[in-house]
Amino acid sequence: RPTTGGSMNPVRTLGPAVAAGNYRQLWIYLVAPTLGAVCGAGVYKLVKLRDVNGETPRPQRSFRR
After folding, report:
1. What angle do CA 28, 38, 51 make, to 5 degrees?
2. TM spans, by residue (predicted)?
């Protein structure tokens, strides 16, 4: 983006940065997806896998046998 300097496609930032040897702000493109995945898994666990009556949720299978 012209105003922030960020890009929506990390490859468009990583490629030129590696070619130019400019590694100062690449940490955000490496940390943010990992942190987002960990936060997303935590929220999923809190919302979707919550015990209703103190029971552990049954494991669900994707295919019936």
Report:
1. 160
2. 26-47
Q: Which domain holds residue 15?
A: 10-47
Size (the chain), residues: 65
Nearest to 56 by CA among 45, 40, 42, 44: 45
pLDDT value for 35? 95
pLDDT score, position 40: 94
Q: Which two tokens stand for residue 13?
A: 């930032």
Report the number of secondary-structure helices (H) and strands (E) in the chain. Answer: 2, 0
**35 lies in a domain?**
yes
Residue at 24 is within a domain: yes
| Lookup: tokens for 6 | 């960020």
Residue 40 belongs to a domain? yes
